[in-house]
Amino acid sequence: MSRLTAQELERSARVLLRRHGPDAPVEARRQAESCVPGGQSHWVATWMLIAEICEELLAGPGAEAPVMHPAG
Tell me, what's the pLDDT at 1? Predict the structure, then answer.
């Protein structure tokens, strides 16, 4: 499996934003969920990263990053 670079992840997020607009993070998470039954955990992680990048791009420059709380 080849690893995606940060630039490739951002490019993927931007494409998703063009296609889905503000619903891009939701679509990325939907893609992640579709990988779960097949056990392709590397793709789940990739789609979740793309969702986070979409959210950051939607927030715009200077916006505070969301605080991530540990589950539990």
Answer: 47
| Owner of token pair 């503000």 | 22
Distance CA(72)–CA(23), nearest Å, equals 27
In DSSP notation, the chain reads -PPPPHHHHHHHHHHHHHHHGGGHHHHHHHHHHHHGGGT-HHHHHHHHHHHHHHHHHHH-TTPPPPPPPPP-
Looking from the CA of 27 toward its CB, the CA atoms found within 13 Å total: 14
Question: Is the overall model pTM greater than 0.85, yes or no?
Answer: no
Q: For residue 37, what are the contacts with CB-CB under 8 A and spacing of at least 6?
A: none
